[in-house]
What we know:
Elements: H1 2-24, E1 28-33, H2 35-44, E2 52-56, E3 65-70, E4 82-89, H3 100-108, E5 117-123, E6 126-132, H4 136-142, E7 145-146, E8 149-155, E9 166-173, H5 178-185, H6 190-198, E10 202-204, E11 207-208, E12 221-224, E13 228-238, E14 244-251
Antiparallel strand pairs: 1-3, 2-3, 4-6, 4-8, 5-6, 7-8, 9-14, 10-11, 10-12, 12-13, 13-14
Helix pairs in contact: 1-2, 5-6
Amino acid sequence: MQQDKEEQLLKKRLTELAGLCWQRDIQTHSGFLTLREQTVFHSIERELAPVRVRLAGGYPQAERKMVCFLASYEEESAPLPIRVLSVVPAAPRFAQPLTHRDYLGAVMNLGIERSCVGDILAEENGCFIFCLEAMEEFLCRELTMVGRTPVVCTPAARPEQIAPRRQPVGGSVASVRLDNVIAMVFNLPRSRVAPYIEGERAFIDGRLETSASARLSGGEVVSVRGLGKFQYLGEQKETKKGRLYVRAEKYL
C-alpha cells in the first residue's frame, strides 16, 4: 500500500536525522510535515536517538511543522531554519481576489516539493508563506505571479506578530465529546462528523484521534481535514436544559 510505504520511508528518514544529530552533535531537521506525518513521528519518538526535539512551523498555531533535532550545545530557543515571506499584489487596485489554493498552486508550479513550504496564511491583501530557509531566496525571486495577478514576494516584516485570523463560535452540546464539539463548531449533525473521525482525519494538538468520545478539556487545537481547524476554549456555563454552553475560535 502506497501510504504504508511512505510512512516507512518517513520513519527511516527521521531515524537517520536523529542519528546524525546524535553522532555529529549538529542540528538536523525534516521538511514541513503534515498532521498525519507528525503522528508517524510521534509513533517512533521513543525509539529515536536520545536527542532533544522541537516541532515548529514558524508560529505557535502552525499546522505543518518540521521536526528539528537539537545539538547538545543549543538552547531550546535556538534559531530554526524557517523563514516567513510576505506576498502582496504588485498593483493592489487591479488585483483579483486570491485564495489559499491560488497561492499554494503558484508555489507548487515553481517545481518545489510541498515539504519545503509550511502553512500559507491568506490575508485580505496578500498572504504569508512559511518556508525552509533554503527556499527563501528562490521564492522571493521566482514567485512573481499568482493566477493572473503579478505579485511581489519579500521577507516578512515583524514575522513574530503573524497569526491566523479567527472567528469566535459558541453553542450548546450534550457533552464535551470530540464529535459533539466538532459538530457545534462546523454547524453539522453529529452523524456527519463520524466519518471524518473514523476516516482518520481528526487531530488534536497534532496527534491523530480516532475516538469520537475523546473528551476536550480546553485549550486544544482540533484539525479536521476537509472541514477546518479550531481551538476549543472550554465550557462557559450549563444551560437550563442541562446542556453545556462551550466556546471555540475557528481559524479562517
